[in-house]
Every structure is written in structure tokens, then in C-alpha cells.
Amino acid sequence: MFVREGHAEKTKTDAKGHYRIQLSPGSYGVRVRGARLRTSLKPRTATVSSGGFGKLDFRYDPGIR
């Protein structure tokens, strides 16, 4: 979930864990939620530039060995 000024935009990952979302320029707080996540991932910040593309990766270790 990408949050800016109280407004949230949501997206979902595909089968490979990739996601894509179109956002207006600005800074966003980013939170990851999911049914399979047993712990929450640390929130991050993303800054979107006008007319640009960005990349924000998350790592999740399910603990399965």
C-alpha cells in the first residue's frame, strides 16, 4: 500500500512477486501486507519523480529451510 497525504493506493503482486503501480509525483509511505506474511515488513518510503520510473524491492524470508 502506498500512502500520501492520507490517500492510499493499493496494488497486488503477480505469481512471481512482481508488482507495478502508477502514482503521481511525490513521497509515499509504503507498507506491505499479505495473507501469507506471518510478520510485517518494515515500512519504507518511496519518492516518485514526474515522468519517471522507480524500483522498490522488498525481501521476505518465510523461514522455510
Would you give an account of this structure?
- By secondary structure, the protein is an all-beta fold.
- It has one domain (1-51).
- The protein is 0% helix and 25% strand.
- It is built from no helices and 4 strands.
- It has strands at residues 2-4, 7-9, 26-30, 44-48.
- A 4-stranded antiparallel beta sheet has the order 2-1-3-4, with no helix packed on it.
- A hairpin with a 2-residue loop joins strand 1 and strand 2.
- It is globular and about 40 Å long.
- The protein starts with a strand and ends in a 17-residue tail after the last strand.
- The model has no long low-confidence stretch (mean pLDDT 82).
Rounded mean pLDDT score: 82
Give start-end ranges of low-pLDDT stretches: none
Strand order of the largest sheet: 2-1-3-4
Helix content: under 10%
Radius of gyration from the CA trace? Answer: 13 Å
Number of helices: 0
The helix-strand sequence is: EEEE
Number of strands: 4
Largest beta sheet, briefly?
4 strands, antiparallel
Beta-sheet strand percentage?
15-25%
What structural class results from the helix and strand content? Answer: mainly beta
Distance between the termini: 29 Å
Supply the number of structural domains: 1
The dominant shape is globular
